[in-house]
Amino acid sequence: MEPARFTTITPALPELMQTVFRDQRMLIRPFSGDDGPALFTAASESLPELCSWMTWCTPGYSLADAVTFASETSNAWRSGAQYCFAIVEAHTGTLHGSIGLTQVDRRHNFANVGVWVRTSSTRRGIAASATSLLAKFAFEELRLTRLEFLVAANNIASIRVAQKAGAKFEGVLRQRLRLAGQVHDALLYSLLATDTPPNPEFATSSLP
């Protein structure tokens, strides 16, 4: 498989709000207010799965919630608090989900990775591809040195994504996450700017 190509569009913008990263089939780009309806559709079909693992998800998630999120992400970009991208199929424009950097810590130069893909688009490697593109943004544009994946111990799909991105398992954090009213142990994975990108054909599938 050909390595993902890194494309930057109008990188001179201080906020990087026109930055797009793509490989042969997927791209990630900042959200705009126009993405609200497509985001709502993607999230709505996936609520049972999302509400199990995402703190922002509620059974009453609405179109207004999606529009507000898509419209307000630019403020978070400008402040450097977080960087959220839409995951989009390059040839069709279909919005498959969202990926972003949260809890950005400039003192220690790391951030947390969060990603979800709509239910109808899972098991296609989309989340792993988007994570590799996000890592390029984090390491090449923001100059971060470390990304963290904090995943509930029984969230198998997200564990696979971290592994396929080449992240290294560091340990178990006991009762670290509270999701949907339940406390979970969490697994911590990390990806460094100096790590060698994984070969997708040989990405590990073992669990700790």
Structure notes:
With 208 residues, this protein is α+β, with helices and mostly antiparallel strands. The protein has one domain: Aminopeptidase. 28% of the residues lie in helices and 30% in strands. The protein has five helices and eight strands, in the order ββαααβββαβαββ. The chain has an eight-stranded mixed β-sheet with strand order 1-2-3-4-5-6-8-7, sandwiched between helices. Helix 1 packs across helix 3. The longest helix has 17 residues.
State the major sheet.
8 strands, mixed
CATH H-level superfamily: Gcn5-related N-acetyltransferase (GNAT)
Q: Helical segment tally?
A: 5
* Percent strand: 25-35%
Strand count: 8
CATH architecture: 3-Layer(aba) Sandwich
What number is the mean pLDDT? 85
Give Rg in angstroms.
Answer: 16 Å
Number of domains: 1
The coarse silhouette is globular
